[in-house]
Each structure stands twice: as C-alpha cells, then as structure tokens.
Amino acid sequence: MVSFFDIINVGLFAATLRMATPLIFASLGGIFSERAGIINIALEGMMLTGAFAGAFVTYSVGNPWLGVFSAILAGGLLGLVHGIITIKFAGDQIVSGTGINIFALGFTAYMSQIVWGSRGGSGPIPQGLGTVSIPFLADIPLIGEVIGKQTLLVYIALIAVIASYLILFKTPWGIRVRAVGEHPGAADTTGVKVYRTKYFCVIASGMLAGLGGAFLSLGHVNLFRNGMTAGRGFIALAAMILGGWSPFGALGSSLFFGFADALQIRLQSIGSLPSQIVLTLPYILTIIVLAVFARRRIAPSDYKPYEKE
Amino acid sequence: MIEKSEIVNRIKRFFSNAFPKAIVLLRNSLPQIIAVLFALLVGAIVLAATGHSPIEAYGAVLAGAFGDIYGIGQTFTQATPIIFTALAFLFAFKCGLFNIGAEGQLLMGGLTAALVGISTTSLPIFVHLPLALIAGAAGGALWGFFPAVLKAKLGANEVITTLMLSYVAVGITSYMVAYPIKAPGMVPQTVPIANSAELPGILPPTQLSASFIIALISAGIVAYLLERTIIGYEIRAIGLNTKAAESGGIDIKKGIILALVISGALAGLGGAGEILGVHHRFIDGFSPGYGWDGLAVALIGGLNPYGAILAAVFIGALRSGGQAMSRSTGVPLDIVFVLQALVILFVAAPRLIKYLLKRGGYKW
Fold first, then answer.
1. Which residues of chain A from 83 to 112 reach within 8 Å of chain B, CB to CB?
2. Which residues pair with A151 in a beta bridge?
3. Nearest-neighbour CA in chain B from A48: distance (Å)
4. Measured between CB atoms, does A80 come within 8 Å of chain B?
5. Element (H or E) spanning A133, and its range?
6. Which chain A positions have a beta carbon within 8 Å of B336's beta carbon?
7. Structure ipTM
8. Cα separation, B324 vs B320, whole angstroms
9. Which residue of A has its CA nearest to B96?
10. Which residues are registered as beta bridge partners of B209?
C-alpha cells in the first residue's frame, strides 16, 4: 500500500522547483515578447533547440556552461528569425511561430541522427551542470532540502524573475517596452524606437526559452531526447496568461504547473496507475486552469504588426 | 434538343474561361510555389552543411515518390491523412481559429473507428463500414468540441487547449491499446478489425485505399460548405471580422463551436481512414505527425480545399520519396519536416518572398 507521504513529501517540493524552472524561463520569455506586442508560440521550438544545442555543445566540448551559452544563442537566433518574419515583413505571428516549432522538431531530430546516429536523442552526457549547495540555506530543515541544494540554473531562474520585474516595471526602458506593446503609434511619436524595442524583446524571449531548454537537457536529465520539451513551451504560455503577463504571476503559475509535472513523475515511479494516463495530468490541469482564468486575464497588446506611417 | 453550333459554342466558352482561370490560379499560387523553391534551397544548404549531397538526396526523393507503382501508391497513401488534417486546419482557420490539435483529433477518430471495427463481425459491409467511418468522425468531432466550448463560453485560447488535448489523446489511445483493448502479444495494438469494416484498396498491390477518394469528396464538401452555404458564410464572416459579424447578427459562439466540431470531424475521419484502410487495426503511434503535416499543407495550399489536395500530394511525395531516400542515401527522414517548416516560414511572410525576389533583381 502506497501511503500519502510516499507521494507528498519534501522530495516532491524539491522536484516541483526543478520542473518549474524551464517553465519559469520560458514564461518570462513569453512575457517579454508579448509585452512588446509579439505573440510567441514558438517558445516550444526555441526550448527544444536550446535543449539540443546545450546537449550537443556540452557533448562535443565537455563544458556544460558553454552548452548553456550555446542554448541561449540558439534560442536567440530563432527569436531573431521570428522577429524578422513578424516585424520587418509583417508576417502572421502564429503561423511563423508554428513554422519555428515544426522546424525545431525536425531539425533537432535530423541533427540528433547526424551527431549521435540515433533519432531518439543522445546518450547520457557525463558533464551535467550538477547541483550547488547554498551555505546556511541548505542547513535549514525542510526548506533547505527544497531550495538549498539545486542546479545553479534554478537560482538563476528565480533571480531572472526579480530582474524581469525590475526591468519591465521599474525602469524607463520597461515602460517603453510596454508602450510599444500597448500603443506602438503613441510610443513612436514620443521617440521610442518601436522596431528596435520589438526586436530586442523577441530575441530576449528566445534566449530565455533556450535557457529553459538547456535546463531540461543539462540540469535535469543530462541527455537530449527527441521532442523532450513535450509541450512545455505551450504550458509556459498558459503560465504566462494565468500569471497576467507579470513575472511574479508567471513564477507562481510555473510553480503550480511544475508541481503537476513533479506529481506526475512521482505517481509514475510508484507505478500503481498506468503511466499513459498519469502523463496526461499536467496537460489536463493546464486546460482546466486556462478555462477558469481565461476571461479574467486581459492581454497587454493587440499584437498587430506595426507599420510606420 | 440542343443544336450542334450551340454545343460547339459551349465547348469554346468552356475553354476560353478555363484558360484564364488556370493562369489566374497559377498567379495566385505563385507565392506558395516560390516558398517551396526557397525551402528546397535552404534545405539543400542544410543537407550540404551536414555532409550530404542535395542533388543526390532530392533525386532519390523524386525517384522514390514517382519512380514505380509502389512509390506512387505510397505517395498518395501518405497524402490521404494529410488532406484530412489540412481540411481540418483550414476549416477552423476560416473562422479565425488556430486548431493545432488535429493530431489528437485524428488519433481519437482512429480509436473510435477501430472500436466499432473490432466490436462485431456480424454486420454487412454497407452497414458496418459507414458506422465505423461515422464513429471516427464523431471521435474527432468530440475532440474539437471540448476546445470549442472552452473558447466560446470561457474564452480559453484554442491554440493552447487544442495542443494540450493532443497530448491527452496520445495518453488515452496509448493506454487503450496497452491495456483494455490490447491484442495478445508484445505490440501495443488492437486485434484486426472485421473485414466488413475495411475500406477497400483502390490501387493494388499498393496500400492506397478508398480513404483517398473520401478525402477528395471531403475537400469538395468543405469548399461547398464554405462558399455556398449560410453557415459557411457566417464562419468566414467571423474569421474576417468578429466584431462586424457580431453586429451583423451572427451567433459567434455557435459559429466557433460548429467550426471546431467540423474541423475535428474531418481530422477524425482521416484517422478512421488510416485504421480502416491502411493498418486494419489501431497500432500505437501510427501517426508520424499527420496533424502538423496538415497545418503545413493547408498553408502551402493557400488555405483552399483544392489547393490542399495538391499540397498534400507534394508533402506525401516528400514523405514516401523521403523514406526511399533515407534507405538509399542514409539522409535522415526528418529533413522532410525541416523542409515543411521552411515552407511555412516563407509562406508566413509573403513580403519576405517579394523582398528576396527584388534583391535577386526580379520584378513581382
């Protein structure tokens, strides 16, 4: 008989924080892009490409931080592509995003066969990021076990939330970003460089998503698996909406979805329920949460391409 | 009684109309054709950069897709489910909805069709087969209905809900064929469906089944629904301008629900066609991503039902030729996905194509 405490315990909350980390990065990415008026449903593909780039570079060079750097670069590059199509050429944001998602799925599977000779992905990559122990914090009972000893990227994600909040809501540049999303025409007349701001945001969005991907392949399981993001980019979008397009809101909802993911993994390892059904838990929760909160969240932009007079 | 000169006149009129029409069609599809060419160009760069010969690879695709009767049969077999998912995508798109969950709707349709197919052997084919097809459409329609209601009643973004439901469909179908309706043996699949539920082959000895014909008919029905019926007009009006449609007295919620339900039914029918016509049982993971293919095909086909058929044959050829290429040259089949994605990216921005042509010195 599986007892309640085999499922709900300190380990589960530590796992929640781990599973929330890629969602935090990606949903912050979504916020930057959408605040500047560009829908980015390509988060999924940017994460996947980041996961691949991180694993590939770490595998070839042996330094996981170089892998993380490449993941950021790869995500940023796809962000630039999304930007060129939707800003310069006023292309449909959702079509472009979908194109990038399919590209990422095909390209990483293709490259995985070129690099590792297997469509499934890489073998284990020995040089993962490993965990760090925060002095004092790690020694506190319970809390220490949850947040005291994690991969450095987990802490970077938490710092990124605070930094994003400060940038978007406490700096003049952040005001400009939000103005570009809410009313690009007005922003333009006050001298804000609308296009440049949009490009910056969509590239930053890709970089953050790429970083989230790197966490998946280097901080979580230490290997690249075909399609390993498994819809997390879209769950991050849901987290962004649920969090009202604000960094702390996104943190809260990412933790919620991270909990669902951690619970799902825990239930699978216990094995008393069929894994195929348990796997659907985070997706069903995402749908329910979206359905309940959709009407109460107002998007920060109408996402129309901006045409200079 | 029609006079001879009248018949001649009619024939003359037909051709004098058909010819400009063909030219107009060609001109309208120019952006798509150029997008395909650009995608092939970028794909060639990817191939060359990873140590493969693009000419050899593309040549192998062409030979594999159209070289013999098996290749041709395989091309159209691969095109068939993609026509359905493309119709599904474009039907919802006309209503301004982005249904990226055709994969899940196809899987659910395949499952319900299989359930009807394996449930009895005592029905005659003209009852059993239509029942199985209807069950497939209903399964897909149900998977379109959930996101439709969530969108219409609660405003939940269908881009996210349809995709999430796809993952749920993968879970449900995998579970079903792994436990409750699993056939004895190692493979997660059902027992074969009854003969009376099988769609007949139409190009023996290849796998091409009557599902292809149903796909063509479906394209005609979709075109008719969208262009010639009130509900089609309402759906297009919602897609063009929701606010104007609403003030014009159109029931937006009804339109959204109907559009996604029909969209799901089309994808479900595609899944049923695969199960009843090709595999003759539900095998876990039988779809290599037909939902995503459909999205690409709908866009390449200019969001036109007949354009979707042509584009699906193109992607089908890439798929069947790609398999041959993969065998003979060792190039991973996934290059086909890369090509598809590149076409979507070029189609996404018509101005990008104009810009590139201008840079190359061509006038539009």
1. 84-86, 88-92, 94-96, 98-107, 109-111
2. A131
3. 14
4. no
5. strand A131-133
6. 106
7. 0.89
8. 7
9. A94
10. B201
Q: Touching check for A298 and chain B: CB below 8 Å? A: no
Contact between chains at A280 and B292 (C-beta distance less than 8 A):
no
pLDDT by residue, tens only, chain A of 309 residues: 567 777 778 889 999 999 999 999 999 999 999 999 999 999 999 999 999 999 999 999 989 999 999 999 999 999 999 999 999 998 889 889 999 999 999 999 999 999 998 888 888 887 778 788 777 777 887 777 777 778 899 999 999 999 999 999 999 999 999 999 999 989 989 889 999 999 999 999 999 999 999 999 998 888 999 999 999 999 999 999 999 999 999 999 999 999 999 999 988 888 788 999 999 999 999 999 999 987 778 888 888 888 876
Residue for token pair 């191939």: B47
Residue spans of the domains in chain A: they are: 4-296
Residues A53 and A108 sit within 8 Å (Cβ to Cβ): no
Cβ contact B215:B80 at 8 Å: yes
Q: Concatenate the DSSP letters of all residues of A18-66 into one string.
A: HHHHHHHHHHHHHHHHHHTT---TTHHHHHHHHHHHHHHHHHHHS-HHH
Q: What is the pLDDT of residues B202-223, one digit of tens each?
A: 998 899 999 999 999 999 999 9
CA separation for the pair A227, B40 (Å, rounded): 24
What is the rounded CA–CA span in Å between residue A236 and residue A248? 13
User: Which CATH architecture describes the domain A4-296?
Assistant: Orthogonal Bundle (1.10)
Q: Which residues of A touch B100 (CB under 8 A)?
A: 98
Task: Give domain limits for chain B.
Answer: 77-298
Cβ count near A18 (within 10 Å): 21
A277 in contact with chain B, both atoms CB, cutoff 8 A = yes
Give contacts of A 211-250 with B, CB under 8 A. Answer: 230-231, 234-235, 237-238, 241
Which site among A290, A297, A302, A304 would you substitute to test the B interface, given the most B Cβ atoms closer than 10 Å to its Cβ?
A: A290
Q: Reply yes or no: is the peptide bond before residue A172 cis, omega within 30 of 0.
A: no
User: 3-state DSSP call for residue A122?
Assistant: coil
The CA distance from A40 to A27, in Å, is: 10
Counting as low any pLDDT under 50, the low residues of chain B are 364
Q: pLDDT tens digits, residue range B308-357?
A: 999 999 999 998 999 999 999 989 999 988 998 998 899 888 888 888 87
Give this prediction's pTM.
Answer: 0.91
Cross-chain Cβ contact B100/A98 below 8 Å: yes
A276 vs B174, B289, B348: nearest CB: B174
Q: In angstroms, what separates the C-alpha of B221 from chain A's closest C-alpha?
A: 25
A99·B345 Cβ contact <8 A: yes
**A286 interface with B at CB cutoff 8 Å:** yes
Instruction: Closest CB to A274: pick one of B159, B179, B332.
Output: B179
Distance from CA of B248 to the nearest CA of A (A): 23
